[in-house]
Amino acid sequence: MPQWLCNQLMRAFYNKNRRQIRLLNDCWFFYRTRKSETDPTTSQLQ
To answer: pTM to 2 decimals?
Structure first.
């Protein structure tokens, strides 16, 4: 997970900002699935 995303998630949890937590969570899953589609080594592991 990128450091900037981790920092924003920690800040959102600290402030109990549910909207931002959901948004960042969606961003992380989008980033992770998109990265696995472009990287053939990770798709072999699944």
So the answer is: 0.66
Distance between CA atoms of 25 and 5, rounded to whole angstroms?
A: 9
Would you write out the chain's pLDDT as a tens digit for each of its 46 residues?
Answer: 889 999 999 999 999 999 999 999 999 999 888 877 776 665 555 4
Rounded CA separation 37/20 (Å): 26
Task: Check if the beta carbon of residue 10 is closer than 8 Å to that of residue 21.
Answer: no
Buried/exposed code over 3-22 (b: 16+ C-beta within 10 A; e: otherwise) = eeeeebbeebeeeeeeeebe
Token output for 2: 């990128």
